[in-house]
Design brief:
about 80 residues; alpha+beta; 4-stranded mixed β-sheet; 3 helices; about 25% strand; globular
Length: about 80
């Protein structure tokens, strides 16, 4: 994860293959465009677990939900420019 204020948050959980893939894609894209990002394990907080359930990974950009399950690279890049 990059330093500074993250623009992208990936809500994830351990043992989730889609989450692992999404984190790698977000890391690559954010590195390319110079944007910070972070990952949050939804199972670390009962409120997050209740909110996201099995709908992970969820990607937020600037505090707004951008997508879930898969990273749409072109859309994410456009949102970060």
């Amino acid at each position: 994860m990059t330093a500074g204020t993250p623009r992208v948050t990936v809500y994830t959980r351990a043992g989730c293959g889609l989450c692992t893939t999404a984190e790698a894609e977000v890391a690559r894209i954010c590195a390319d465009v110079g944007a910070g990002w972070t990952a949050v394990d939804v199972d670390s907080d009962p409120v997050l677990r209740a909110e996201y359930g099995d709908r992970v990974p969820v990607i937020e950009v600037d505090g707004r939900e951008h997508g879930f399950w898969r990273v749409e690279e072109a859309r994410l890049r456009a949102a970060l420019h």
